[in-house]
């Protein structure tokens, strides 16, 4: 997946208007990982989405890994 935007903690009310944030899920990459790992597909998609949404909220990679382990 890919998060495009400015994480919430780095934003300011004084920032000029910009494009909306965007989360992209790459179908082929997800399907390839699903085939390689035999993980439950909905769980895999949810994991990728949570990872990218966490970037939006400014979570560190360590925080994201802890969230994913808890899923």
Structural notes for this entry:
By secondary structure, this protein is mainly α. It has helices spanning 27-37, 41-56, 61-70, and strands spanning 2-4, 22-24. The model has no long low-confidence stretch (mean pLDDT 91).
Structural class: mainly alpha
Helix content: 40-55%
Kindly provide the radius of gyration, computed on alpha-carbon positions and rounded to a whole number of angstroms. 14 Å
- In terms of quaternary structure, the protein is single chain
Low-confidence stretches: none
Give the strand content: 5-15%
Measured between the Cα atoms of the first and last residue, the distance is 18 Å
Number of strands: 2
Q: Please tally the helical runs, counting DSSP H or I stretches of 4 or more residues.
A: 3
Question: Shape, please?
Answer: elongated
Spatial order of the strands forming the largest sheet: 1-2
N-to-C order of helices and strands: EEHHH
Report the major sheet: 2 strands, antiparallel
Average of the residue pLDDT scores: 91
Task: Jot down its keywords.
single chain; 71 residues; mainly alpha; two-stranded antiparallel sheet; 3 helices; 2 strands; elongated
How does the SSE layout of this entry go?
Blueprint: E1 2-4, E2 22-24, H1 27-37, H2 41-56, H3 61-70
Antiparallel strand pairs: 1-2
Helix pairs in contact: 2-3
Short description:
By secondary structure, this protein is mainly alpha-helical. It is built from three helices and two strands.
């Amino acid at each position: 997946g890919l998060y495009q935007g400015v994480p919430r903690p780095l934003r300011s009310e004084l920032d000029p208007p910009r494009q909306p944030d965007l989360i992209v899920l790459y179908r082929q990459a997800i399907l390839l990982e699903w085939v390689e790992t035999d993980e439950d597909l909905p769980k895999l998609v949810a994991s990728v989405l949570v990872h990218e949404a966490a970037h939006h909220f400014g979570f560190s990679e360590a925080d994201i890994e802890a969230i994913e382990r808890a899923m």
